Amino acid sequence: MQRPLGREREIPPLVEAVVKTYDEVSKINHLGLSPLPSREQIIEIITGLKEIVYPGYFGRQNFTRDNITFHIGDRMLSVFRALGQQIYRSFLHECQLASPDCDHCAKAAEQVALDFLGHIPKIRRLLAKDVQATYDGDPAAKSLDEIIFSYPGLEAITVYRFAHELHIMTVPLLPRIMTEYAHSITGVDIHPGATIGESFFIDHGTGVVVGETTQIGNNVKIYQGVTLGAHSFPKDEKGQLVRGRKRHPTIEDDVTIYSGATILGAEAVIGKGSVIGGNVWLTGPVPPGSVVTIESPGLVYRDKSRRPDKQAGG
């Protein structure tokens, strides 16, 4: 039998000390205000959306042409309700004139949720090309099924495709919560504001970073550890970061970027058909059709069986 601690009476003063900080450090409180979106509910929405865009792979199975309309209709209805509620909460949080039951926010959220569901056919067509690009680009892939089930790059791209639609609909909070969830489980960090074309393939995935204003064309392939980031962070006259301007690279069509490459800044435009080698650091433009590599480092080989000579005084 577990021995009771017997010191519960010492907890109330500790609670008081913590609660006291809620006045002292108020910027990280959300008390007495409208409820924020629920991260747990947003993860469930992602799960529901994956069931819709990849029917038969996640969630319910045994779909047929005879029953799929009923099942997907039921799933879309549940996603609509949950997504509408989370969009409403995000709108309510941003609305300066809102009351706890703001009718304007409720109607706007419902319309955005409907509009988003209307974009699912477009998202599915994009994802089908992403899956095919992954299969075509990875000789280790045995089937499309394996890719859909298990590839972290595709998982991150899938969640990004959902989040990007909500981002361009100017939904607050939700898009970033979605992509940061994907980041936490895949190691791939794609900002929902990035613009990514068709047939995008991330191989291996871990450590990839794609910044907010990055523009990526069609048929682009990147490997693990690639950073498409900002070169600098300009500030205004008050010393605050200037936001809302392009500060990340542009990657044109048919580009391959190998592992560990770092490409920074809006001036870094990687021309169509170029290949960027591993560990390359770029902050400027690359002409179309280029191959950019770093010089091979000098390597030293020695026989493991030979002991190095002792240094003097050793």
- Specify the helix fraction band: 40-55%
Strand order of the largest sheet: 1-4-7-10-13
Order of helices and strands: HHHHHHHHEEEEEEEEEEEEEE
Radius of gyration: 25 Å
Low-confidence parts: none
Helical segment count: 8
CATH architecture descriptor name of the largest domain: Orthogonal Bundle
Please summarize the sheet with the most strands. 5 strands, parallel
Shape: globular
Distance between the termini: 60 Å
Total tally of structural domains: 2
For this structure, the CATH topology of the largest domain is: serine acetyltransferase, domain 1
CATH homologous superfamily of the largest domain, by name?
Answer: serine acetyltransferase, domain 1
Q: What is the typical, i.e. mean, pLDDT?
A: 91
Q: What top-tier CATH class of the largest domain fits best?
A: Mainly Alpha
Count the E strands.
14
| Beta-strand content estimate | 5-15%
Sheet/helix structural class: alpha/beta
Brief summary:
By secondary structure, the protein is of the alpha/beta class. The chain contains 8 helices and 14 strands.
Helix/strand layout:
Layout: H1 11-24, H2 39-53, H3 68-94, H4 103-118, H5 120-137, H6 144-150, H7 152-168, H8 174-186, E1 189-190, E2 195-196, E3 201-203, E4 209-210, E5 215-216, E6 221-223, E7 227-229, E8 250-251, E9 256-257, E10 262-264, E11 269-270, E12 275-276, E13 281-282, E14 291-292
Helix pairs in contact: 2-3, 2-8, 3-4, 5-7, 7-8
Which properties best describe this structure?
single chain, alpha/beta, serine acetyltransferase, domain 1, UDP N-Acetylglucosamine Acyltransferase, domain 1, 5-stranded parallel β-sheet, 2 domains, 314 residues, 14 strands
